[in-house]
Inverse folding.
């Protein structure tokens, strides 16, 4: 019988669950774009001495309605990119909310999956990438099963209840600073009024004629 490598057997098996909306808003507050590959490597990559079982991303989609179709297509394209790069993705269709927004709460799905996957995959460590205090009770439930729970977030977005419920808090602020800055479009410069070269005064605007109103040349 072949003897197992002691270093391999000592590696902790890690399950990472990500609240995409929460971590996305956290990284945008510091003006950065989220680098998902760096995030995965930072939490459970080869250099951490851990074995990543799965990294599951929970994301809400815009409603399947014409007014949201363009944004929904963009989000689905991004979800496909995550899948093609080895992430497991779980989505939920959103529903219209007030003021032209939508809501797609994935908290319940993420909590149920965390309990089920902890039984099926038998992780040593579960990392919850979120600052939402709604996951505090989930952290306690996992710890009762003998699973180490770590919460990855930034301090300003991490609720105290969730902080105290976890075994350890991983501050993502330093990692976020290594991500690329979001390039904001430059504001349009206001053009000065065109002046009459002879008089040195702004030329008055002529009212549109009927042909111009009708869109004719």
């Amino acid at each position: 019988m072949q003897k197992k490598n002691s270093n391999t057997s000592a590696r902790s098996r890690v399950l990472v669950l990500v609240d995409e909306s929460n971590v996305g808003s956290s990284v945008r507050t510091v003006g950065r774009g989220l680098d998902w590959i760096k995030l995965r490597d930072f939490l459970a990559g080869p250099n951490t001495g851990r074995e990543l079982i799965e990294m599951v991303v929970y994301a809400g989609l815009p409603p399947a309605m014409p007014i949201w179709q363009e944004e929904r297509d963009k989000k689905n394209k991004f979800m496909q990119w995550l899948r093609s790069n080895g992430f497991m993705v779980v989505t939920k269709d959103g529903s219209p909310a007030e003021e032209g927004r939508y809501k797609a709460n994935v908290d319940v799905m993420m909590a149920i999956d965390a309990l089920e996957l902890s039984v099926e995959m038998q992780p040593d460590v579960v990392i919850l990438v979120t600052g939402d205090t709604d996951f505090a009770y989930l952290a306690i439930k996992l710890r009762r099963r003998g699973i180490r729970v770590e919460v990855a977030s930034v301090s300003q977005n991490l609720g105290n209840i969730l902080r105290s419920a976890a075994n350890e808090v991983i501050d993502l602020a330093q990692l976020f600073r290594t991500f690329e800055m979001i390039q904001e479009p430059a504001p349009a410069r206001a053009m000065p009024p065109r002046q009459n070269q002879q008089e040195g005064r702004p030329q008055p605007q002529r009212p549109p004629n009927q042909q111009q109103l009708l869109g004719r040349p």
About this structure: Residues 1-8, 190-217 have pLDDT under 50 and may be disordered.
